[in-house]
Every structure is written in structure tokens, then in C-alpha cells.
Amino acid sequence: MATAxxxxxxxALGPWFVQHQRDLEWRRTRDPYAIWVSEVMLQQTRVDTVKxxxxxxxxxxxxxxxxxxxxxxxxxAAWSGLGYYRRARLLHQGARHVNTTLxxxxxxxxxxxxxxxxxxxxxxxxxxxxxxxxxxALVDGNVARVLSRLQAITDPKQQLPDAAxxxxxxxxxxxxxxxxxLAQALMELGATVCTPKLPRCGECPVRGECxxxxxxxxxxxxxxxxxxxxxxxxxxxxxxxxxxxxxxxRRPAEGLLAGMWSLPxxxxxxxxxxxxxxxxxxxxxxxxxxxRTATGLRVLKPEVLREPxxxxxxxxxxxxxPARAEVEPTDLSDESGTTIGExxxxxxxxxxxxxxxxxxxxxxxxxxx
Length: 369
Ligand code: SF4
What we know:
This protein is an alpha+beta fold. It has helices at residues 4-20, 32-42, 47-60, 64-69, 72-79, 85-101, 110-113, 121-132, 141-150, 164-174, 179-192, 211-214, 288-295, 358-366; strands at 232-242, 245-250, 261-262, 265-267, 303-304, 309-312, 317-326, 343-346. The chain is built from 14 helices and eight strands. Strand 1 and strand 2 form a beta hairpin. The radius of gyration is 25 Å and the shape is elongated. Residues 275-282 have low confidence and may be disordered. Residues 146, 149-150, 193-194, 199, 201, 204, 206-207, 210, 212-213, 218 line the site of iron/sulfur cluster. Iron/sulfur cluster binds at residues 146, 149-150, 193-194, 199, 201, 204, 206-207, 210, 212-213, 218.
């Protein structure tokens, strides 16, 4: 039940959102499927990035049936560059689940929505409230920060998006007006005004209700996270060429960049010396035997490019050292001479069907492909 405070917050947030919301294409639809796609894309991804992907994706897969019938490689290709490809796979699996077991339409209630692969409590709340204007709370990092500050919550555990107090407060706010408007208002306030650093409290529609502002605690909430540095892994990124074409391999179905196209990667000893200044060659290089073991190919002496490429995942950092090598001419007749499963030989500018992650694109660019 909405409390008097939730009522006051709802009365301030609703009109503010209507007047100040950003004009985003997915906000012009009430189609639950379209909202589902937007919410999945927006997880851990900036709005500006999603803007470039949502419309083309919806054009290619305009409804659940089309997405369900699509080949996974086409779905991953449409997702290429957005990152966190597991989301695309789950969305695809979810569409197939809806098509085969739920009659082709997304259910309305959050409980049923959560039976679909990839739809958790947050996404179910987003679809129910935004598409159906039904009061089902959703709390992400932005909303958790707003609610933590509004209530001057100083306990780091109670500041997290899964804290029960946040879900209860958000629920009360949604019940005090239009859930569609208020759910988006809370998210928008966190994204544009009540930002992690330097929130614009002077422009905030709920500053009169904000206990953190009243108690001068805005800068302390949320409590800064003590993050352990992500483990770093040094890898050779092998640019293996055969008759002008470069080898790409499909990554395993599990793990980082699962199922995506990549150069063959090999562990690089952490103590390997850096390239001497101004040289194209590193003193250390992947051994021919290691390349042969990893790919089944015999290659000529590799040439190591000087600058590595750094790629940061959520919990891991890759330092990728591009090393190019020609496949031995004697190996040319052996087209299937790799032991690495699905692979493709590409000409410059050519790309195989399926997901090409940003890190692969960077490496291809470095290698002139
Ligand atoms: Fe956030 Fe400042 Fe508004 Fe409080 S007054 S909710 S800290 S923007």
C-alpha cells in the first residue's frame, strides 16, 4: 500500500518524467516484446550505445515468432559490438520458449514472465510496469542509488539493488500513480540527475524528500565499493595467414566470448620481455610447437606486433599480444588441417556470419583485416 511519503514522491516524479524524459525510441512503444528487447540491451550497457542497436534489431526481428525462428548466428551478428553476448543467447532462447510453450505471446504477470529463460525479477517488473502499466516494482543500480539517497541508507548491504527495502519502497511508489510513468521516472532520475558522481540536486524533483541531501550525506551514499583488481591474463592473439587469408576460430560454447569469432589465443608467459622500443618484433614469441598444438597448423616464425590490446571484462582483463605467422607452404594442401573445431579463413574486410566481438574487430584492424 502506498504511504503518504510514496504519494508525495509519486506526485513529484510523474510530472517531472513527463516533462524531462529523454526521447528514446523504445519509449514510444507499449509492445511488451520491444520493451523486453530494450531492457535486455540496456543491462550493463549505456543508453547511447543501445540507441544504435535497438532499431536495427527490431527491424530484423520485429516480433517473437521471427526471433524464435532465427538462426542463432543471425541473432549474434545483430548483437555484435553490444557485448555480454550471453544476453543475446538468452533472449533468443526466451523467444523460442515463448513460442513453443506459451502460445507465442509474452505473459502479463511477473511470476509467469520469470519462467522464461533470461527474464529475472527486474526484467519481469519492467515488462509488467512499462508495457502493461501494472504495479510491479523494478530496482536496478540507478533506482537503488536514488532510493538509498532518498532514505539516507548508510548500510552498504541495504544500498544494493536486491535489498528488500528498495523493492518495497519502489512498489509503494508505483502503487501511488501510473506504474508505467513512475517506474521509468525512477530509472530516469538515477540515470540523468541522481548520478553516481556529482548528482544535480538543485534540479531534482524530489529534493524536498531527500534525507541524504538534508543530512549532507549525498557524497557518501552509496558507499564506495572496495573492488579487488581483476585478474589479468596475457595471451598471444595469433594472426595465422594462408594464401592471404586469416584464420578465425569459433570460441567454445561456454566461457568468455562463448560461441563468438576470435583469433586463436595462446597463453603468454607473464615474464616474457616487452618489445624493445621502436621495434616491430618482440624478443619473446609464441613457439611453433605451441601454435601447432593449439591449431594443428605448421607455421613459419611468428612476427610479434609491438603494442598489445587490452580488453576488460567484468571480472577479468585480457592483454592480447598480436602475433602473425604464415602457415607453412607444405601445409597448404591440408584445408582441414586445424584441430580447433569450427573456423573460417577470411580475406581482408570479409567477416563470417555470427557474432564478431569488439575485441576481435580491434585485432583484425591491427592485422590489416
Ligand atoms: Fe539524488 Fe540529490 Fe535528488 Fe537526493 S536530492 S534524490 S541525492 S539528486
